[in-house]
Specification:
- The protein has a two-stranded antiparallel sheet with strand order 1-2.
- The chain has ten helices and two strands.
- Helices cover 60% and strands 3% of the residues.
- The protein has 265 residues and is mainly α.
- The protein has helices at 4-22, 28-43, 65-80, 92-98, 102-113, 117-128, 161-171, 181-199, 206-221, 229-259, and strands at residues 138-141, 145-149.
- β1 and β2 (145-149) form a beta hairpin.
- The longest helix has 31 residues, at 229-259.
- It is globular and about 45 Å long.
Length: 265
């Protein structure tokens, strides 16, 4: 069962992502104005942020300066786009240094499912380039008129509706979202674990894990990827990216292990 703290953190992440996604160039100044007003409210000793939190969860009035500063930071995130992709997606250390809570999520998935962090990141990088609301491009009629999208894939991991439903049913995480990084790294770990048990693919084999991820377990068993030279090339790219991420993490993992516990979300 989700604790009130976990529910609140999840709600905050969703609100930040939703507000960032809805923001337009015309509204940047008003977003910043509202956010700065929220910061002033957060720092005011007589105000609280109870209004607007998820129903069913009690939020105590934050009397300490540290708590008020945390909420000020949240609203700065809304203003300046914390839901945006990392600025340097080629370096795993830089990704985790910029996105403070992501390392904790990836490490938790690794410990739960056994799929290494560098493999998780390489798959997500290939699927969405870390765009939280990534979608396949629309097909076009006569090369001009926008039509339907080629699939229901969405979010960091580009999971399709049916696969995501299978994950939620299997894990009991009914509230999991495809645009929530914490949920997606758990999904990638779960998928890799099933691929290991069903297909015998090693959990650290980024090449074969990606082929199974892309083609599905049945497609992999039927070796459908052998007819797709472009896909084999992409899977080799994922393998190289995973290898690069692993080498980078070896240089910063100790610092990340010491530092992630300071991140409150």
């Amino acid at each position: 069962m989700t604790s009130p703290k976990e529910a609140m953190n999840k709600w905050l992440r969703r609100r930040i992502a939703a507000l960032h996604g809805a923001r337009s160039l015309a509204c940047i100044s008003c977003d910043m104005s509202r956010s700065l007003r929220a910061v002033r409210l957060a720092l005011h000793p007589s105000r609280s942020f109870v209004h607007g939190f998820p129903k069913g969860h009690t939020v105590q009035r934050f009397g300490t300066l540290s708590a008020r500063l945390i909420f000020a930071g949240i609203w700065f995130c809304v203003a300046f786009g914390c839901a945006s992709p990392p600025s340097n997606t080629k370096n795993s250390c830089a990704i985790f240094e910029e996105k403070g809570g992501w390392y904790k999520s990836a490490l938790k998935s690794q410990e739960k499912w056994g799929v290494p962090i560098h493999v998780q990141l390489a798959i997500i990088n290939q699927e969405s380039r870390f765009e939280h609301d990534a979608k396949p491009p629309r097909d076009r009629i006569l090369w001009v008129i926008p039509w339907f999208r080629s699939s229901s894939a969405f979010g960091y991991g580009q999971a399709q509706d049916g696969t995501w439903d299978a994950y939620r049913n299997s894990t009991g995480k009914r509230g999991a979202d495809r645009d929530d990084f914490d949920d997606v790294v758990d999904f990638v770990g779960w998928y890799g674990d099933v691929s290991n048990r069903k297909l015998g693919i090693a959990k650290d084999d980024a090449y074969r894990q990606y082929l199974a991820y892309h083609e599905g377990w049945t497609g992999y068993m039927r070796k459908t990827y052998k007819k797709k030279k472009w896909l084999i090339k992409v899977a080799r790219d994922v393998e190289r990216t995973a290898h690069k991420y692993r080498n980078q993490l070896a240089r910063c993992e100790d610092d990340l292990d010491k530092g992630w516990s300071l991140w409150p979300f």
